[in-house]
Each structure stands twice: as structure tokens, then as C-alpha cells.
Amino acid sequence: MREEDVRRMLSAREQPAPKPQRTIRRFLVRLAILFTLYVLSIGPLYWRWYGAKVGLDSRTFLIFFHPLETLAKWFPPLGHFLNWYVSLWIY
Hints:
The chain is mostly helical. It has five helices and no strands.
């Protein structure tokens, strides 16, 4: 092994490991962003979801948005928001 490689490996070892609290916070932020994108995806895909609901499109959309539909029933403010948001996408 070359001396440079050994130095690089040793310097990598000396770097402190990420703190668990910071890692958890990053995970939660990423999860919140992912959930937000999931919720907002119903807008542009509403007609595909509706088509699947009435049997004209792939059932994949029903399966993909079923958790969102269930959450909207359990948490009415989310349902009200989704109704408002989807109405922006219906022409």
C-alpha cells in the first residue's frame, strides 16, 4: 500500500461518527418530505385514480393511493385539504 493511501484511511478513521440524534432528525425530515410529495401527487394523478375507481384505468393507482384515502377518512382536516387541493387540478 502506498503511504498516501494509508494516510487517507487513517484520516477517515479519525472523523467522528455522525451523532444518532442528528441521524434520526435527518431521517424524519426526509420522511416528512417524502410524505408531502406523496400527498401532493394525488393532484396531477387524480384523473388516473378516478379512472381506476370506475374501472377504466389500472388498479395500481387504487393500491398506491389507498393509504391516503384511508388517512383522509381517519383525519378529516386532511380530507378537507385533499378535496381543496384536488379541485385545483380538475378543469
